[in-house]
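FIELD: query
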Amino acid sequence: MRRVDCQRCGVTIEEVPWGIGKHTLCKAYMLYLAHWARK
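FIELD: result
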């Protein structure tokens, strides 16, 4: 992930679709586990 040093916002990190917050699992894997747990 790339970092940018913005004069207005400070240091910001590029957002990626698989990195939601502090989750270590990607969204697709979380959905798979949720579906698997319902069985």
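FIELD: remark
The mean pLDDT is 79.
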